[in-house]
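Just curious. Protein, please.
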Amino acid sequence: MPRWNDEQTIYLSGEEIRERRKALGLSQKKLAELLGNYQSNVARWELGKAIVSKVMSDYIKSVFEGLEGSEEAKNKIAA
């Protein structure tokens, strides 16, 4: 379930990150590579041990949306 900050801007929850990542067939490591981040950060977000910043939340959403709509991107992930 996404959470809201004081300005009513939606952020991704760790649960949503995990669900969308798994739906795309991505490992934490692969998602981290796509984000230019570390696997340990993805794990911490998913477990709720770290808060996803607005900038990173927006970036993760854009990566997910790009992958959900792009067969070419899905093929690159599988490689």
